[in-house]
Specification:
Distance between the termini: 46 Å
Shape: globular
CATH architecture of the largest domain: 3-Layer(aba) Sandwich
CATH class of the largest domain: Alpha Beta
CATH superfamily of the largest domain: Glycogen Phosphorylase B
Strand order of the largest sheet: 9-6-5-10-11-12
Strand content: 5-15%
Oligomer: single chain
Order of helices and strands: HHEHHEHEHEHHEHEEEEHEHEEEEHH
Length: 344
């Protein structure tokens, strides 16, 4: 029986391979069945880059569903983000961008409406800067039912996270998740700042601190995540839904401007964002309780300037907006949150 299951999985993997004719036929079948079943327009939504950008697009997809109630919505994104869209339950079909060979085989006439979501700093039209959630909605002219992206983590992942955290959670203080990166260098905080912050959290709040996120930033010059002293290191050990379930179980999330900050908001965990070149008011979760920390340098928020005042790996001011931030300034913002009856 075990050998049969292995053989079946191998055949299924080959059949579902993105370059196979069977996979293309399967996607076409799903599209056509959806159109017949719902008797409405077939809509393609495309957003591939950035987990945070993809999460911020979810309210727009829900608004499209409200505007076209009988529609069949296909979301095309990076393969690694597919589970997030599926957990949001906003699209009928989710395609991974690694399956682009299959997509090219699909008849483009299957889609009555095709939407490539772009932010104000991407389309070259110099639209007024808005929160990314509002920006996407404005770009396709839909009214949002809710501005807060929401993800329903499958119960299997929640149970697994609960069980794994039960052995490390301390009854004396909160469970805090941190994300230091790796991301763009201009968005990262100093290693010293993280070390001092974690030490203070453990001393003052008796907090248990877990570090989450990817281990390596893939790019021209791959970099590994800095391991903060005193944390329980879970970096690179969880997939995206396992990470979402873990963050959901935490009392507080602290992180740099990245996709995991948006993920924390989408699962309802209170968060503190550490920002520099990007204006936090245009990125933070819109309804989940959150706050931010910034320095007071004159060039703060240069990401929204024309031209942009930074590049991914640096700026003309040696990233002072992040280097000037102290652990005490982050703690002040954390104190504002935990003095309220907010932590679970």
């Amino acid at each position: 029986m075990r050998d049969f299951l292995k053989l079946f999985r191998r055949i299924w993997k080959i059949w579902k391979h993105p370059k196979s004719f069977a996979a293309a036929s399967w996607y076409q079948f799903q599209l056509r069945r959806g159109k017949r079943r719902l008797n409405g327009p077939s809509i393609l939504v495309y957003r591939h880059s950035g987990l945070g950008d993809v999460i911020c697009s979810l309210p727009t997809v829900n608004a499209l569903r409200d505007k076209y109630p009988n529609s069949f919505i296909t979301y095309w994104t990076l393969k690694s983000f597919v589970p997030v869209i599926q957990a949001a339950e906003c699209a009928d079909l989710v395609l991974g961008i690694d399956e682009s060979d299959v997509f090219q085989q699909l008849n483009t006439l299957e889609f009555d409406i095709a939407i490539y979501l772009k932010a104000a700093d991407e389309d070259g039209l110099r639209r007024p800067h808005r929160h990314t959630v509002d920006d996407y909605a404005e770009s396709v002219q839909v009214s949002l039912l809710s501005r807060q992206p929401k993800i329903k983590v499958p119960s299997l992942f929640v149970k697994k996270a609960t069980n794994s955290l039960a052995t490390i959670r301390s009854p004396k203080g909160p469970l805090v998740a941190i994300h230091t990166g790796p991301t763009w260098a201009v968005r990262e905080w100093t290693e010293r700042g993280w070390d001092e912050l974690v030490a203070a959290l453990q001393c003052r709040l008796k907090a248990t601190v877990v570090q989450v996120g990817a281990d390596v930033l893939v790019g021209a010059a791959p970099r590994r995540a800095y391991r903060t002293k005193g944390t329980i290191d879970l970096v690179g050990e969880r997939n995206i839904l396992e990470t979402a379930a873990l963050i959901q179980q935490c009392d507080l999330f602290i992180g740099v401007d990245s996709g995991l900050l948006h993920l924390a908001g989408a699962v309802g965990t209170h968060s503190v964002g550490i920002f520099g070149p990007v204006d936090p008011k245009l990125r933070l979760p819109t309804e989940t309780i959150s706050d931010f920390v910034t320095s007071s340098v004159p060039c703060l928020g240069c990401h929204h300037a024309t031209p942009q005042g930074h590049w991914k790996t640096g700026c003309n001011h040696d990233i002072q907006c992040m280097k000037m931030l102290s652990a005490d300034s982050v703690l002040e913002v954390i104190d504002k949150i935990i003095t309220q009856p907010l932590l679970r």
